[in-house]
Write a structure and sequence with these properties.
The chain has helices at residues 29-43, 66-73, 82-92, 108-111, 142-150, 152-159, 167-173, 185-197, 201-211, 215-233, 236-250; strands at residues 5-10, 13-18, 50-54, 97-101, 104-106, 118-122, 126-128, 165-166, 178-180. With 251 residues, it is of the alpha/beta class. It has a single domain, classed as 2-enoyl-CoA Hydratase, Chain A, domain 1 (Alpha-Beta Complex). The chain has a six-stranded mixed β-sheet with strand order 1-2-3-4-6-9, with helices on both faces. Strands 5-7-8 form a three-stranded mixed β-sheet. The radius of gyration is 17 Å and the shape is globular.
């Protein structure tokens, strides 16, 4: 386990915390692998009834670590992205998953929420998927799950127009359950987890499965998006957008 992912089992609840505050919890391949392992091992552990995913207070995640991501994506023989394994683990996860979002959720920080079953957000949380501004396309099966959760028009606004949603807008759109005060998302997530852990586990698992698209449909869309995403990474539009992005960062 890297020092940037903390996994703690609290009774029947597994809490997965992103802890890279100096980089706004930007996710590296090593972090993806650690989160994947935590989710997959929970699936096989009958003692774990619920999962919480959090970034701590003040930030959820800035999304992919773009410097590492760009280096891998533009390599002559790019490796299989660890993010794909993480998203696949989410698609096949069988335990209720709660997200506690306090601050910004960018890119995959937002798309992963559509794999969750219950989302709490602080009033200062924001949600954005700026793929289009980088010349890219949706990922994480978001092109399937977002319209399913909040309708095609809102999904277009987020995924194609690249609009940022506030916590209240996300609540109105239906992908945030509850908006709470800053600094209280984890405490409230633990309350929800305790309620879930009191319920009959098999009935919860069956009901959860009925509510969600089949895992095969989700992983098929992840693969389709992944192929298109990889193609777009080498496009003139994307290369120009990334160069402009890093030029702004240097200044």
């Amino acid at each position: 386990m890297t020092r940037h992912i903390v996994v703690a089992d609290e009774g029947a609840t597994r809490v997965i915390t992103l802890r890279r505050p100096d980089r706004k919890n930007a996710i590296t391949d090593a972090m993806y692998r650690d989160m994947t392992a935590a989710i997959e091992s929970a699936r096989e552990d009958p003692a774990i009834a619920c999962l919480i995913l959090t970034g701590g207070s003040g930030v959820f995640t800035a999304g992919n670590d773009l410097e590492e991501f760009l280096a891998q994506a533009t390599a002559t023989a790019p490796p299989e992205p660890a993010a794909i394994a993480f998203l696949t683990a989410l698609a096949h996860n069988t335990k209720p998953l709660i997200a506690a979002v306090d601050g910004a959720a960018v890119g995959i920080g937002t798309t992963m929420l559509f794999h969750c079953d219950y989302v709490l957000a602080s009033s200062t949380a924001t949600f954005s998927t700026p793929f289009i501004h980088l010349g890219l396309v949706p990922e994480g099966a978001s092109s399937l799950l977002m319209p399913h959760a909040m309708g095609s028009h809102r999904a277009f606004a987020m995924l194609v127009l690249g609009q940022t949603f506030t916590a209240e807008a996300a609540h109105a759109a239906g992908f945030v359950n509850v908006v709470v005060s800053p600094g209280h998302t984890e405490a409230e997530a633990r309350k929800v987890a305790r309620d879930i852990c009191k319920l009959p586990a098999e009935a919860v698992a069956i009901s959860r499965k009925l509510l969600r698209p089949p895992p095969e449909a989700v992983t098929s869309r992840i693969a389709q998006e992944g192929r298109l995403f990889a193609e777009r990474m080498r496009s003139k539009e994307a290369i120009t957008a990334f160069k402009a992005f890093f030029a702004r960062k240097r200044h």
